[in-house]
Write a structure and sequence with these properties.
Shape: globular
Largest sheet: 2 strands, antiparallel
Order of helices and strands: HEEHHHHHH
Number of strands: 2
Distance between the termini: 35 Å
Radius of gyration: 18 Å
Structural class: mainly alpha
Strand order of the largest sheet: 1-2
Bound molecules: iron/sulfur cluster
Strand content: under 5%
């Protein structure tokens, strides 16, 4: 299974709930974080086929890199905030944490193309395996940004010496 593959059918419309957007070129109205989009019908977008024409190209461009479906299935066993409103906040928080995890999976994969020394290549693979294979819980995702994400970002900083200027 490719961890970065988005599968909206296994998600609970977390992006249409959690993310904020501003009225403008990409979105036809303002939306606050945690406000379910009024175009949402259960877990589906009611204007999915005509998003561009209706003024929502931003929704077409957005890709959570598989973090929404992973949160719903791995952390919440397929449950949804729509069936149990108590889950709204924990699901939003977990989605935020998982987006950070998946952003780093994406970057760690991209670093494969750099001519890394063996020790750095091993570190890259170790981080990637941890982020992809770990079975995350909500609290662990909440801690990710102040813990392992910082470690990985320091590692990325060190990789800049491999990037041709
Ligand atoms: S317009 Fe559709 S895809 Fe965009 S946030 Fe609303 S429900 Fe989601």
């Amino acid at each position: 299974m490719d961890r970065l593959k988005t599968d909206c059918s296994q998600c609970a419309a977390l992006c249409c709930l959690a993310l904020a957007f501003d009225k403008g070129r990409d979105f036809a109205f303002d939306k606050n974080p945690g406000q379910p989009c009024p175009n949402l019908k259960h877990h589906l977008c009611s204007i999915h086929e005509s998003l561009e024409e209706k003024g929502f190209p931003g929704c077409v461009k957005y890709d959570c890199l598989g973090s929404g479906n992973r949160v719903v299935q791995e952390v919440f066993a397929g449950r949804s905030w729509q069936d149990d409103p108590k889950l709204t906040r924990p699901m939003m928080e977990a989605f935020s944490g998982m987006r950070e995890v998946h952003k780093r999976i994406d970057l760690l994969r991209a670093a494969e193309t750099l001519p890394l020394e063996p020790a750095d290549e091993q570190t890259r693979r170790d981080y990637l395996a941890r982020l992809e294979q770990f079975h995350w819980s909500g609290p662990e995702l909440n801690d990710f940004e102040v813990g392992m994400a910082l470690e990985i970002d320091i590692f990325f900083h060190g990789l800049r010496r491999y990037v041709p200027r």
